[in-house]
């Protein structure tokens, strides 16, 4: 097949593919919608789990993928609906032909109005074909726009983070670099975004295009626009494409607003309340968490109902916790922080081994666990329990510490487990001061299986047996 776009044969091939592309569009849309619906929940769980464990950078990546999936799903559903309407219209045209206004026998006023507003049935089919093709192309274009926005944001974060490694420079030099890099980058981002909303109006005037061109050239690399630039400009030179680009963003905002609406049937009861002595959350009980949503928030116990005379307790590890441990015990802080992205082969090879000697560094690990047990206080009701946490890693999302509490002396009934420890006053700001507070409150009910208390049914059976034996 010739790929010379100037040849006559290649143009004929494109014309033929244009006429038959609707079949490929439907096939791709069907498989894509199925795959996107299947991927939606795992992406939500990945994003939530990353935020809970303190890996906010990974969480942002999963969030961007989730947004792309949702935009793509919405556009493809609209496309399939319109394409189905188009197929139905073609089938109806085969049976009924064009609209015969004389057969309707309407008055002259209505007939002239309908001929002007409705027009030919073939025109209606042609408009549907245009809408379907443009919306299908716009689905991919919107994804590229989201990716471009994400890459610019990542670039901004990398620039700001790079100043943290310049501690050897004087503060006035760092401030000068911030003014010279961060402020121009932010202003340039706003200019590019305004040009994007205005569909390239800064490229139209000679004097604005001269000033804007260097900014456009830099951000065209950052947004990876070389992947979709032909698609974008071919989309914008179409009259309907221009209108659609204005309409899509407000439609997305309306959809997000509608999906965020929820009916509240109580002034006091809410599923969004934190766990307390008055309310429970399923994420604090292992048996209430499904396999897909196995991540927890802060801590968990096996169940709301504890039948054994011991209580297993799991405490989730996150990045903030490790920073607090370093503040508590400076000897544990390594010279080189290895947290972040690493190859799984490297992790498996070096995990738990000292870089210098190759011997397992159990002393540091022992000190690490000792610090964990010192900074976290466990209480059931008003009684404090001595914690003896050890490392527990059932899954990648469930890395933390586990201990067992002796509860055989507890009375039967409801009890409140609390874990108190240090945390950042503002979790969004790593440099905020540390405060001591209750991190989690978990209610549970203790009814041991070997209880000496007899229930009513067993008591009745026992009395019947004694009475029978007495008469015998």
What is the 3D shape?
A: extended
- What low-confidence regions span 5 or more consecutive residues with pLDDT below 50? 347-360, 452-472
Averaged pLDDT, please?
77
State the secondary-structure class: alpha+beta
Strand content: 5-15%
Using only CA atoms, what is the Rg? 33 Å
Number of helices: 13
Order of helices and strands: HHHHHHHHHEEEHHHEEEEEEH
Strand order of the largest sheet: 2-9-8-4-5
Total beta strands: 9
Give the termini distance in whole angstroms: 102 Å
Sheet with the most strands, sense and barrel status: 5 strands, mixed
What is the share of helical residues?
Answer: 55-70%
Describe this structure in words.
The protein is α+β, with helices and mostly antiparallel strands and 472 residues long. Among the domains are: 190 residues; 131 residues, Immunoglobulin-like (Sandwich), CATH 2.60.40. It is built from 13 helices and 9 strands. The strands form 2 sheets. A 5-stranded mixed β-sheet has the order 2-9-8-4-5. Helix 2 runs antiparallel to helix 5, helix 5 runs antiparallel to helix 6 and helix 6 packs across helix 7. The longest helix is centred in the first third of the chain and has 45 residues. It is extended and about 90 Å long. It starts with 7 loop residues before the first helix and ends with a helix. The C terminus is likely disordered.
């Amino acid at each position: 097949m010739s790929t010379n776009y100037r040849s006559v044969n290649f143009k004929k091939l494109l014309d033929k593919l244009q006429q038959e592309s609707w079949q490929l569009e439907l096939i791709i849309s069907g498989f894509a919608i199925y795959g996107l619906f299947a991927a939606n929940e795992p992406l939500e769980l990945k994003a939530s789990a990353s935020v809970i464990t303190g890996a906010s950078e990974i969480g942002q990546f999963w969030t961007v993928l989730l947004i792309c999936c949702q935009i793509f799903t919405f556009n493809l559903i609209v496309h399939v609906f319109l394409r189905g309407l188009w197929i139905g219209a073609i089938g109806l045209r085969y049976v009924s032909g064009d609209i015969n206004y004389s057969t309707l026998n309407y008055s002259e006023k209505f007939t002239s109005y309908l001929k002007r507003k409705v027009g030919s049935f073939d025109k209606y089919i042609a408009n549907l074909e245009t809408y379907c093709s443009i919306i299908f192309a716009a689905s991919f274009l919107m994804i590229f726009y989201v990716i471009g926005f994400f890459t610019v944001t990542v670039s901004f974060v990398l620039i700001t983070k790079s100043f943290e490694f310049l501690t050897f420079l004087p503060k006035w030099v760092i401030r000068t670099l911030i003014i010279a890099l961060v402020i121009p980058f932010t202003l340039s981002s706003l200019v590019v975004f305004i040009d994007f909303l205005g569909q390239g109006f800064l490229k139209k005037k000679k004097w604005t295009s001269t000033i804007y061109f260097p900014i456009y050239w830099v951000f065209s690399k950052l947004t990876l626009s070389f992947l979709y630039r032909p698609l974008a400009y071919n989309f914008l030179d179409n009259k309907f494409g221009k209108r659609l680009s204005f309409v899509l963003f407000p439609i997305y905002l309306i959809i997000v607003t509608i999906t965020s609406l929820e009916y509240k049937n109580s002034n006091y009861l809410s599923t969004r309340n934190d766990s307390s002595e008055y309310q429970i959350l399923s994420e604090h009980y292992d048996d209430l968490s499904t396999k897909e949503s196995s991540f927890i928030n802060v801590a968990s116990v096996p169940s709301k109902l504890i039948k054994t005379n011991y209580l297993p307790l799991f405490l989730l590890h996150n990045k903030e916790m490790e920073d607090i441990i370093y503040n508590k015990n400076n000897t544990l802080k390594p010279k080189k922080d290895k947290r972040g992205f690493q190859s799984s082969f490297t992790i498996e090879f070096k995990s738990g081994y000292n870089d210098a000697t190759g011997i397992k560094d159990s002393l540091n690990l022992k000190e690490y666990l000792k610090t964990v047990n010192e900074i976290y206080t466990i209480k059931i009701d008003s009684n404090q329990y001595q914690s003896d946490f050890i490392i527990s890693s059932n899954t990648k999302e469930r890395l933390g510490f586990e201990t067992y509490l002796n509860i055989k002396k507890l009375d039967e009934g409801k009890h409140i487990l609390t874990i108190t420890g240090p945390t950042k006053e503002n979790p969004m700001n790593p440099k905020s001061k540390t405060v001591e507070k209750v991190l989690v409150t978990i209610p549970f009910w203790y009814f041991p299986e070997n209880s000496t208390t007899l229930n009513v049914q067993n008591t009745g059976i026992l009395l019947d047996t004694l009475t029978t034996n007495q008469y015998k």
